[in-house]
Design brief:
Blueprint: E1 4-6, H1 11-21, E2 25-28, H2 34-39, E3 47-50, E4 60-63, E5 66-70, H3 75-80, H4 82-87, H5 89-96, H6 101-104, H7 109-115, H8 123-128, E6 132-137, E7 140-145, E8 150-152, E9 155-156, E10 163-170, E11 175-184, E12 192-203, E13 206-215, E14 222-223, H9 225-231, H10 238-246, H11 262-281, E15 317-321, E16 324-328, H12 336-343, E17 362-365, E18 368-371, E19 384-386, H13 394-398, E20 405-407, E21 413-415, H14 427-434, H15 444-457, H16 463-469, H17 481-491
Parallel strand pairs: 1-3, 2-3, 15-19
Antiparallel strand pairs: 4-5, 5-10, 6-7, 6-10, 8-9, 11-12, 12-13, 13-14, 15-16, 17-18, 17-19, 20-21
Helix pairs in contact: 9-10, 10-11, 14-17
This protein binds flavin-adenine dinucleotide and FE2/S2 (inorganic) cluster (2 copies).
């Protein structure tokens, strides 16, 4: 997929490399878009410049007049921050809608903006919040409002040699209410059919400013200027909400595509706007801070962040898998999934799709559940990885699996990860058996890794939390009910 994986360890080094390579390299952050594109042959490149080892780029913080979001801030990091819910509610709601937990642990807000699809969920909220994008290059930093950033489908004003350094959301003192709504073909792992962000300001109950942005209805996300103008000075009575929403037909011209015909899109969007305005009329405002399922518990003290690759002169990667530290040669061009299966001899993690859609490859990386098919192996140097083999089942032993041995280039023996000698099933594994939650078994390693992470984070989840935790894991056989029953058996509260 790529030949060279460059991993700068400072912002200055990153900007030097970005300037030097220009269009001959691609930047990568969480990799959830880049790896899918490279798998599909879209924007191929020989060289990746990895941002993940650059320190101090992951934050949500307040700076006087604005909320600052760093370039490496993941959707989960944003969801964990009370500041996001307080000052940028529609953005937090959008981040909660992206993919599934294993995607949100890795994917960044900046990456979502940079992919620049009109369906990307964080663009409408950042447009209505009037965000500024701070770009950095060797020659300095400059800001641009998000409203001037997009030139077309997947085309932006970002120049070769530049990176998106920070997103700034101005704070507003007045009464503002905002909301993000999305319609997808499923509740999770679904690109929007339509999405919309609404942000209204009020004086004495009347709309004093209306900002509405809609996605999936034009080459870029667009403002609904006719709807906005109509709402000015109005009270949000039910008939006003209805009349306003009808005007959206004057603001956009959706197309037919594989996800929906244009007529459906327009009708769905109209209904979403009515729904959004009605919710705002009832007073949905900043300040909501739910506790979303993250599948991300703090890593143990011994397993810090990944180390920069530059610490190793050759092209090997050293990592701790299920408690065993080993060094592997020639894996930097692979995904973590392929590295685990082909080099570490751990074939429990499965490849169902190789595009982040099915969850069969779920492992824990530094305490976070991730889709290992979307992680470059080079990013796990120095990391702590847990795979389904950490549970070491009797089944694995009964199969007589033994660790493989390989010879590295330097002549040292590189042993695939040893299995420990545990002789019991983990409670969740036992529950899957008790509940008949397994048929062909292909999805089960991923289900167990996502389910066990949920129980670690939330020992007594309700059904909604269970559904959310497993929303990134597909099963073609069981129908899911027995899988949920197994989770209930171990930690559930028996809610329906
Ligand atoms: C299964 C699945 C489901 C998904 N569901 C959704 C969804 O529901 N809604 C949605 O909107 N998206 C969805 N996505 C898309 C994706 O997860 C997001 O776009 C993600 O936020 C991208 O962030 P990343 O860090 O992974 O970016 P990467 O893949 O690392 O990079 C994305 C792009 O941004 C560039 N880039 C990244 N960071 C910077 C930077 N700081 N400066 C300059 N360029 C940069 C890269 O070069 C690349 O072009 C989904 C993806 C998958 C695989
Ligand atoms: S999500 Fe990784 S193989 Fe399907
Ligand atoms: S048991 Fe067969 S795919 Fe889930």
């Amino acid at each position: 997929m790529w030949q060279t994986f460059l991993q700068p360890t400072s912002l200055a080094e990153t900007l030097d490399l970005a300037g030097e390579y220009g269009a001959d390299a691609r930047l990568i952050a969480g990799g959830t878009d880049v790896l899918v594109e490279l798998q599909r042959g879209v924007k191929p490149t020989r060289t990746l410049i990895d941002l993940s080892a650059v320190p101090d780029l992951e934050y949500v913080s307040l700076h006087g007049s604005y909320l600052a979001i760093g370039a490496l801030t993941t959707h989960n990091t944003l969801l964990r921050s009370p500041l996001s819910w307080q000052y940028a509610l529609p953005l937090a709601q959008a981040c909660q809608e992206i993919g599934a937990p294993q995607i949100r642990t890795r994917a960044t807000v900046a990456g979502n903006l940079l992919t620049a699809s009109p369906a990307n969920d964080t663009i409408p909220p950042l447009l209505v919040l009037d965000a500024q994008l701070v770009r950095a290059s060797k020659t300095g930093a400059r800001g641009l409002p998000v409203s001037e950033f997009y030139r077309g489908v997947r085309r932006t004003e970002l120049q070769n040699g530049e990176i998106l350094r920070e997103i700034r959301i101005p704070l507003d003192a007045g009464e503002r209410r905002g909301i993000f709504l999305k319609l997808g073909l499923r509740r999770a792992q679904a690109i929007a059919v339509v999405n919309v962000a609404l942000l209204l300001s009020f004086v004495n109950g009347q709309v004093s400013e209306a900002r509405i942005a809609v996605g999936c209805v034009a080459p870029t996300v667009v403002r609904a200027s006719h709807v906005e103008a109509f709402l000015m000075g109005k009270h949000l009575e039910p008939e006003i909400c209805q009349q306003a929403a009808q005007l959206i037909a004057q603001d956009c011209a959706p197309i037919d595509d594989v996800r929906a015909p244009a007529t459906y899109r327009l009708r769905a969007l109209t209904n979403l706007i009515v729904h959004g305005l009605t919710r705002l009329a009832r007073g949905t405002a900043s300040g909501e801070h739910p506790r979303p399922v993250l599948l991300q518990t703090e890593p143990p003290a011994s397993s810090g962040a990944s180390l920069p690759l530059s610490l190793l002169a050759d092209d090997s990667v050293q990592t701790t898998i299920n408690g065993n530290t080993a060094r592997f040669a020639h894996v930097r061009q692979k995904t973590l999934l392929n590295f685990l299966r082909e080099d570490a001899g751990l074939t429990g993690s499965k490849e169902g799709c190789a595009e982040g859609e099915c969850g069969a490859c779920t492992v824990w990386l530094n305490g976070k559940a991730v889709m290992s098919c979307l992680v470059p192996a080079a990013q796990v140097h120095g990391a702590d990885i847990k795979t389904i083999e950490m549970h070491n089942s009797r089944l694995a032993q009964a199969n007589g699996e033994k660790p493989a041995e390989k010879q590295s280039e330097a002549g040292e023996v590189v042993t695939s990860v040893q299995r420990d000698e545990g002789r019991y099933l983990q409670p969740l594994q036992q529950a899957f058996i008790d509940c008949g939650a397994v048929q062909c078994g292909f999805c089960i390693p991923g289900m167990l890794m996502a389910g066990a992470k949920l129980l670690e984070e939330c020992p007594h989840p309700d059904r909604e939390q269970m559904r959310s935790a497993l929303s990134g894991n597909l099963c073609r056989c069981t129908g899911y009910r027995k899988i949920l029953d197994a989770l209930v058996q171990v930690g559930g509260q028996q809610h329906e």
